[in-house]
Automatic annotation (TrEMBL):
GO terms for molecular function: fructose 1,6-bisphosphate 1-phosphatase activity; magnesium ion binding. This is Fructose-1,6-bisphosphatase class 1. Keywords: Carbohydrate metabolism, Cytoplasm, Hydrolase, Magnesium, Metal-binding. It comes from Croceitalea dokdonensis DOKDO 023. It is an enzyme of class 3 (hydrolase). Homotetramer. Mg(2+) 1 binds at residues 93, 117, 119. HAMAP family: FBPase_class1. Binds 2 magnesium ions per subunit. It comes from the Bacteria.
């Protein structure tokens, strides 16, 4: 049951029973994510004042320079989830391999693994543009009480039991689904409490916003180029508006509220696109579908892709139903 402005804590408890595996374990896990998000939010908000601006000096397994806030957020989410004893394994965009949490200890009967992009939109940290955190939750498929295995993390997106993101923007919001619609909670910084502000979020079926890094246009496949040209044509309700923040979470959030399409295609320079299937595309796809949107990798529904590696990248197209369908028409011409 949703009541506007109920707290996240009340919402979690009141909706626990609508979750098919409800044992309270997932509620504890979402609460732990809420706690870590508040700690990271605190650091993000004072990014200019404290030493979390700039590169941390290391390169992650993606070959990217880790930002100090990437490392801070990664440590905070991993330590909070571990200390709260709510997961049996964690995989992070910032970690080479997955982390097993007490999973081979009979005492620890935790059933969930979490996959996380601790800080999304890293290129925007130093320039005070909104960034986020993305999380994806699965039930383990290997027996409880035994060490988690890679296969526990390489599950197709449609196996997710929950997914969500935190956007650290003009306000801080936690938006998530457990497969029963999408709800958004806004943090009241004075009270340190998240309140239900956006119940039952839905992508408008049509939109007028397209989000893509047009700087890569020359490298895109012809179908994508044609669709971008279609968005820019003077006809009917077009041209659409081009909006690209460069933080997936923020671009997705805006498009979900206003109607739009986000695209990170593969190109002659990024053979399989840039975004990570497990930490970015699957959770956003689960949210999109729960909010009446569509998420594809080209021909394939994102959540039907069988993952093969922890850090694999895929092309990603996501947003308002009729806009993604129109894009599919253009892509189909060249398939
Ligand atoms: O600068 P580009 O190539 O357009 O990429 C921007 C995209 O890369 C990302 O920053 C990748 O995420 P990370 O910041 O977590 O690495 C997305 O948030 C964003 O949509
Ligand atoms: Mg990211
Ligand atoms: Mg990241």
């Amino acid at each position: 049951m949703t009541r506007k402005h109920q707290t996240l804590g009340e919402f979690i408890i009141e909706n626990q029973t609508s979750f098919q595996y409800s044992s309270g374990e997932l509620s504890k896990l979402i609460n732990a994510i809420r706690l870590a998000a508040k700690v990271v939010n605190h650091e993000v908000n004072k990014a200019g004042l404290v030493d979390v601006i700039g590169a941390a000096g290391d390169t992650n397994i993606q070959g990217e320079d880790q930002q100090k806030l990437d490392v801070f957020a990664n440590d905070k989410f991993i330590s909070t989830l571990t200390n709260r004893d709510v997961v049996c394994g964690i995989a992070s965009e910032e970690e080479d391999s997955f982390i097993s949490i007490n999973s081979n200890d009979e005492q620890h009967q935790n059933k969930y693994v979490v996959l996380i992009d601790p800080l999304d939109g890293s290129s925007n940290i130093d320039v005070n543009v909104s960034v986020g955190t993305i999380f994806s939750i699965y039930r383990r498929i290997t027996p409880v009480g035994t060490p988690v295995q890679l296969e526990d993390f390489l599950q197709p997106g449609h196996q997710q039991v929950a997914a969500g993101y935190v956007v650290y923007g003009t306000s801080t919001m936690l938006v998530y689904t457990t497969g029963d619609g999408v709800n958004g909670f806004t943090l009241n910084p004075a009270l340190g409490t998240f309140y239900l502000s956006h119940p039952n979020m839905q992508f408008p079926e049509d939109g007028k916003i397209y989000s893509v890094n047009e700087g890569n246009y020359v490298h895109f496949l012809q179908g994508v180029k044609d669709y971008i040209k279609y968005c820019q044509q003077e006809e009917g309700d077009r041209p659409y508006t081009s909006r690209y923040i460069g933080s997936l979470v923020s671009d997705f959030h805006r498009n979900m509220i206003k109607g739009g399409i986000y695209m990170y295609p593969k190109s002659s320079v990024t053979e399989s696109g840039k975004l990570r299937l497990l930490y970015e595309c699957n959770p956003m796809a689960f949210l999109a579908e729960q909010a009446n949107g569509i998420a594809i990798g080209g021909k394939t529904r994102i959540m039907d892709i069988q993952p093969t590696e922890l850090h694999q990248r895929v092309p990603f197209f996501c947003g308002s139903k009729n806009m993604v369908k129109k894009l599919q028409e253009f892509l189909a011409k060249y398939q």
